[in-house]
Amino acid sequence: MYNTTKINLKIVESNGNKAIVKITPLVKGFGYTIGSAIRRVLYSSMKGAAVTGVSIDGISHQFDTIVGAKDDVLHILLALKQVRFKKTIEGPIVLELNVVGPKDVTAGDIEKVAGVEVINPDLVITSLSDKKSKVSAKITVNDGFGYVPADESTTTAIGHVALDANFSPIVNVVMEVTDTRVGADTNFDELTMTVTTDGTVDPVFAIRESSKILKGFFHKVETGEDFTEADEKDLEEANSNESTMSTQTQADEVVLEELHLPTRTINALKKAGIKTLGDLADRSEDDLLRVRNLGEKSIREILSLLEKEGLK
């Protein structure tokens, strides 16, 4: 059963934030075993950085507006959540954003600090119409793993908004297993993995790092070495992500008509190509805001529904 043939990792394509690699040859059945393990670790255990809170001068809540700004505060917050940071220093850091119009406010306008780099500086956050309009904000950036809901208990100052954070730098992982041969023996698997990141981590490095993490856990199982508290936390996070993936699969089978949503909301969603609960869960808040005839009240109802279903 053991594979005595040397296993190769071949980089088929590596272009910035996307890479395609082939791992071969693997004993029959191990393509899915190894591929699924690496995929789960990629999603759950790759460290990243994200905005966790924002304080904007002159506003008291997230549904407020800024004079002269094209977008309301809610849209600005959604845009800030899309800013991707490459962070080499530990712990939370507060960055300032101070812009006077008229101009487009972009991620590149965020204060530059050693150890923190904005990967998508051209991202437009909002537009200011004239010289009297301005945006002054303090943006808290932290590092972590996976998806972390907003901690409202940390919100103490008026105007400070805690945000949900998706720390994972992994955007998408696609795996494919095909048959391959070694000499005359065709009973082997070839695993192809296509990994897309947000640009803050090299996808080939992420695959190797995930394999290293798995190797560390398997070594502890092999030797009987005790797991540390950090190891147990990693396992809990991986199990949580696996549960979410299973819930997502079930959601793909639930059509919108089965949900407790107003008919008008369902019709607006269907016109936007959203037909199932799974489709709905795949859309970001920003995507929902772009759906015609879907107001803020409807979006709040949808987000509440997704949270109850464990899909937020």
Helix content: 25-40%
Strand percent estimate: 25-35%
- Count up the domains: 3
CATH class of the largest domain: Alpha Beta
- What spatial order of strands do you see in the largest sheet? 1-2-14-13
Poorly predicted segments: 241-249
User: Main sheet?
Assistant: 4 strands, antiparallel
Q: What is the H/E string?
A: EEHEHEEEEEEEEEEEHHHHHH
Q: Any guess at the CATH architecture of the largest domain?
A: 2-Layer Sandwich
Determine the N-to-C terminus distance.
42 Å
Which secondary-structure class do the elements indicate?
alpha+beta
Oligomeric nature of the chains: single chain
Radius of gyration, in angstroms, nearest whole number:
22 Å
CATH topology of the largest domain: Gyrase A, domain 2
Number of helices: 8
Shape: globular
User: CATH-wise, what's the superfamily of the largest domain?
Assistant: RNA polymerase, RBP11-like subunit
Q: What integer is the average pLDDT?
A: 84
- Count all strands and give the number: 14
Tags for this entry?
3 domains; alpha+beta; 312 residues; RNA Polymerase Alpha Subunit, Chain A, domain 2; 31% strand; 14 strands; four-stranded antiparallel sheet; Gyrase A, domain 2; 33% helix; DNA polymerase, domain 1; single chain
